[in-house]
Q: What sequence folds into this?
């Protein structure tokens, strides 16, 4: 039982390049989330998917897009990376609002 | 403004000692308060979730308390172990329009032998 799996673990991009961060969960959770974590700031929600087939913007959605491919998978895409998107990105899932979030171990992204 | 503030920012204790971490919040209305543990290089892991009607909740050597009147919570760690070295994050579930989780910055705990 792997929980929440994120790939890749590390990535370096040049400004303007694009990439997709992958996330998959094997806990049959309905809701999935993408957060970013930066020094001196609490986790900030980028996008979330309350259930398969739906996605919604969080606090900091600009520069990102998401796809809820199926119940298991939720990907985050950076179309044109900027240095301000240098961060650690976490994917999380949970069964329902009010239940604990289960996090992956993050993707460490550097944009030069 | 809905905020979550934690203290101290960092703490160093000796193995076997107890410690208490604090969380003050101004979030209103709120649904529940959570504590997460985040090891270096890993994602946060849930320790406890308390609704506004719960005063205390334990998870092994971790005990969280909540005073909804004063909007304060604490996390007490008993008989600390080296593996307790981590960041402990307080999170409040804002129950108003646009319901969301509001994350504190965490307390960084180092347990030394």
A:
């Amino acid at each position: 039982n792997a929980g929440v799996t994120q790939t890749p673990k590390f990535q370096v991009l040049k400004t303007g390049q694009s990439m997709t961060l992958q996330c998959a969960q094997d806990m049959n959770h309905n809701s999935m989330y993408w957060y970013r974590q930066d020094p001196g700031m609490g986790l900030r929600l980028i996008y979330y998917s309350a259930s398969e087939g739906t996605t919604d913007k969080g606090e900091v959605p600009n520069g990102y897009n998401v796809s809820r491919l199926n119940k298991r998978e939720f990907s985050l895409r950076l179309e044109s990376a900027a240095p301000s998107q240098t961060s650690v990105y976490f994917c999380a899932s949970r069964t329902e609002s009010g239940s604990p979030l289960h996090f992956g171990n993050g993707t460490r992204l550097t944009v030069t | 403004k809905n905020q979550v503030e934690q203290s101290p920012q960092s703490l160093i204790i000796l193995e076997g000692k107890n410690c208490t971490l604090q969380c003050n919040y101004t979030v209103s209305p709120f649904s529940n308060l959570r504590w997460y543990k985040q090891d270096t290089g890993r994602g946060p892991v849930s320790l406890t979730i308390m609704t506004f009607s719960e005063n205390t909740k334990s998870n092994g050597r971790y005990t969280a308390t909540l005073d909804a009147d004063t909007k304060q919570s604490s996390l007490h760690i008993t008989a600390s172990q080296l593996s307790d070295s981590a960041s402990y994050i307080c999170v409040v579930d804002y129950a108003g329009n646009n319901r969301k989780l509001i994350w504190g910055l965490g307390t960084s705990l180092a347990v030394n032998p």
